[in-house]
Amino acid sequence: MNETIKNQLDHRTIREFKNEKIDDSIIESLLDVANMSPSSNGMQLFSIIKITDQNLKEELAKNGLQEYMARAPYLWIFIVDLFRNYNIAKENYQENDEMIGFDKFIQGFTDSIIAAQNVSIAAESLGLGVNYFGNIHNNTKHIIELLDLPKLTYPAVGLGFGLANQKPQLKPRMDINLKTFENYYQVFDNYNEKISAYDKEMTTYYDLRDANRRVDSFSKQIPVKQGSLIANRNKMFETLIDQGFIVK
């Protein structure tokens, strides 16, 4: 097994970082990795906002309801960016509505996530810790205002990274056999039975956000996390339309 795979199998979400600067050459390398990431049709429909203003970090953390976001020494927001290519086409009198449709939005969202994941893998291979921030979707309209995003852009995911200042417990995962099928989707007769061992394993895991408390079993987390709505997230689609994307 090579070192890259070892790092991936040892992935942990890092929420506390050392207050140390990373060499500029490493940052440039991570940006090069993002830039060379696979892209749908080669259209490169993403951009990165590097957050260096501490006041802005604190506003993002407040929006995301995760105070440790403000302590990430390096915080990048990956955004769907159809604005750039649309304006290139417009300058050549070749713009059309297909360029800003929902299909292209999905391409841009996919490009953004792939780029973020490539940066994450590269950062961990260099001994850095990383943390994804999906909390930017708690109020996407506010994020758009904070980052001064133009029409035809949309926040996809945040990525914090730096030198780790903690070693959290490795979070258990569901058996891969429940997520892997051949040729067609397999439906099981009893899912609780299938995850019974995983449920027990999860109750031995300590989440460092509440270091003195074990987490609930996975089956109990589902209605709490997947079955509830964070305030303002029901407005994400509305914000998408406000940003000028054409949804038919």
Automatic annotation (TrEMBL):
The keyword NADP applies. Residues 11-62, 63-162 form the Nitroreductase domain. It comes from the Bacteria. One of its GO terms (molecular function) is oxidoreductase activity. Keywords: Flavoprotein, FMN, NADP, Oxidoreductase. The keyword NADP applies. SUPFAM superfamilies: FMN-dependent nitroreductase-like. Its EC number is 1.-.-.-. InterPro entries: Flavin_OxRdtase_Frp (IPR016446), Nitroreductase (IPR029479), Nitroreductase-like (IPR000415). Belongs to the flavin oxidoreductase frp family. PANTHER family: OXYGEN-INSENSITIVE NADPH NITROREDUCTASE. This is NADPH-dependent oxidoreductase. It comes from Anaerococcus octavius.
